[in-house]
Amino acid sequence: MSKLLKKPVNEQLEDGVSLVHEVTSENSDLKYVSFKMVDLEAGGAYKEKLGKLEVCVVAVTGKITVSDDQEMFEKIGTRDSVFEKKPTDSVYISNDQSFEVKAESKARIALCYSPSDEQLPTKLIKAEDIGVEYRGKGNNKRMVHNILPDDNPAANSLLVVEVFTESGNWSSYPPHKHDRDKLPEESMLEETYYHEQDPGQGFVFQRVYTDDRSLDETMTVENGDMVIVPKGYHPVGVPEGYTSYYLNVMAGPERIWKFHNDPDHEWIIK
């Protein structure tokens, strides 16, 4: 099994709370990004003390109430399926705080983490405030929900986006990377991909490779899988008949997304 491809663990933590994924520095090569996907039954609650991490709680599906030490955001979340293709609500919570997520209905939540020392205000990121961006042309089209982009100063390190790619199209394409701390040309950002497909029996292909091919893996990614991108180019191909959704989390030394296209394939967009 690839070290980069993560299958769901579906581990019950307590009544009404199941861990779908957990990515940390202990089970991956990532230093800046960590991630959990948690399923909650109605009435179930997940609690955590952050330490020196910030988190973006994404209401992937269902209705939730999120509270920290001082604030509460009730009944947030906008969709029953990601393939409704509308933005959802999220909550940013800074380091050294405790938080709780309670499910008002059956829900799936993404917990997107990165290191943080400077405490920032807790912030509700409303669905209606999320920028929707269309990238690419031809068979390179995709729709992006910019939940926590680099021009939003709400976080210290985190970048979070959702991407929808239609049948027969490519995404994260032409192949690009962001693994060198060499601004202004390129920033160093690790990345995770949480994938879903519609219909659910679908799959996508994702390749992760470096210029010298010291890392070069092509994976068949099924519904609910994750792909870890510690470095390298990372394009995604979507077969005919299926729609792709993925949730990206990025973080690195500086909170700037500056990527470098694979020069062998950059001609595609020129």
UniProtKB/TrEMBL annotation:
GO terms for molecular function: 5-deoxy-D-glucuronate isomerase activity; glucuronate isomerase activity. It catalyses: 5-deoxy-D-glucuronate = 5-dehydro-2-deoxy-D-gluconate. Coiled coil: none annotated. Gene3D superfamilies: Jelly Rolls. Transmembrane segments: none annotated. InterPro entries: Deoxy-glucuronate_isom_IolB, IolB_Bacilli, KduI/IolB_isomerase, RmlC-like_jellyroll, RmlC_Cupin_sf. Its EC number is 5.3.1.30. It is an enzyme of class 5 (isomerase). Pfam families: KduI. GO terms for biological process: inositol catabolic process. Pathway: Polyol metabolism; myo-inositol degradation into acetyl-CoA; acetyl-CoA from myo-inositol: step 4/7. Keywords: Isomerase. Involved in the isomerization of 5-deoxy-glucuronate (5DG) to 5-dehydro-2-deoxy-D-gluconate (DKG or 2-deoxy-5-keto-D-gluconate). Belongs to the isomerase IolB family. PANTHER family: 5-DEOXY-GLUCURONATE ISOMERASE. HAMAP family: IolB. This is 5-deoxy-glucuronate isomerase.
